[in-house]
Amino acid sequence: MYKLGSVIIGFLITIMVTINGVLAKGVGDYKSVLIIHVVGLIAISLLLLLRKEKINLKKEIPKYLFSGGAIGIFVVLFNNISFNKLGAALTLSLGLFGQLIMSGIIDHFGLFNMDISKFNVKKIFGFLLIFAGLVVMIIY
């Protein structure tokens, strides 16, 4: 079920990056980021209201965990800039490769209080295969 959900997330991210990139082409990179996040704030606010959920922040949550929103702004901005220069496939492929590398580092060292999952040397083949695919996409 989680694997299917992850595939669906992949579809949604591709649609989102495409829509965001086209919006950025129309209104500009920085204004599009503002519009995207205001619309997102309105959407999640309505969802919370419909579900009658209250925002209850626990004091023991480390402050750095709230930085995801700021990081999200840069993710959307860089996606918009890259999308309009590289297209959807290359933007998302390079981004996915970056995610693969960073997630391997996070797992290996247990960053952000994650469980440690040591890097297995057998994974290098997968990394190299994906990298080779990126090189082909960039060249052609």
From TrEMBL:
InterPro entries: YdcZ
Tree of life domain: Bacteria
Transmembrane segments: 34-52, 64-83, 89-112, 124-139
Keywords assigned by UniProt, alphabetized: Membrane, Transmembrane, Transmembrane helix
Record's protein name: DMT family transporter
Native species: Clostridium mobile
